Amino acid sequence: MKNIIRRVFFLLGECLFVRSLNAAEPWSDGGITYGFATKSDYKRIRELYWTLSGSDFSRSQKCMLRLYINKQIVVAKMGAEVLGFNYYYRNLEDKKKQMIHEGYIGVLSSYNGKGVATSMRKYAHAYFRSEGLKGVSSRISEANMASLNSARKLGFKVIEKYFDAGMNECRYYLICTFNESDS
Ligand SMILES: CC(C)(COP(=O)(O)OP(=O)(O)OC[C@H]1O[C@@H](n2cnc3c(N)ncnc32)[C@H](O)[C@@H]1OP(=O)(O)O)[C@@H](O)C(=O)NCCC(=O)NCCS
């Protein structure tokens, strides 16, 4: 019971935190627009998440996303088509470290290898840095070279390697700390 109450208070605090984030201007590069998602992107993002991971967002994630998708998910779009998305939230550890967690990144397979994931991460890092956060944490499977390569390029460093029994694979816990000199 105590844990449920703690969790509810934590989520309420996170609602206030996400609400307090400022709006961000989109970027355009090579016909692709990078920016935060709108409510009309939600259905397509869920479908893409399902296609790429076989998972759906949890109940609490869905509640938060219905309210704050425009502060939690970065999308890469061509016109109205969602090519990829990058989902951010915090857990208690991130909050203590004044960081944000990259919960998921996915790009349509037909657009892989074109730098879309890297650009979404760059956009998100510039934004969260401008909002005063100190960095981004992430968890990536050892076998996921595409995600690891893009993350390393952005400055993520491995903090811990561990075996995830639920996923039955080795994973890395990584952190990218924003430098004072980053633009
Ligand atoms: C991981 C993923 C998001 C990467 O998206 P992307 O837009 O193709 O990535 P980028 O093009 O920005 O960069 C990927 C980097 O990895 C490299 N790369 C791509 N596929 C690779 C592979 N199979 N093995 C090794 N490197 C690979 C690319 O060449 C690029 O590096 P480079 O710029 O030095 O050439 C995409 O592959 C994806 O959606 N995968 C399925 C979902 C997933 O696994 N998500 C990650 C969960 S943590």
TrEMBL record:
InterPro entries (UniProt xref): Acyl_CoA_acyltransferase, GNAT_dom
Highest rank taxon of the organism: Bacteria
Gene3D superfamilies: 3.40.630.30
Pfam families (alphabetical): Acetyltransf_1
SUPFAM superfamilies in the cross-refs: Acyl-CoA N-acyltransferases (Nat) (SSF55729)
Record-annotated N-acetyltransferase domain positions: 32-179
Identification of the protein by name: GNAT family N-acetyltransferase
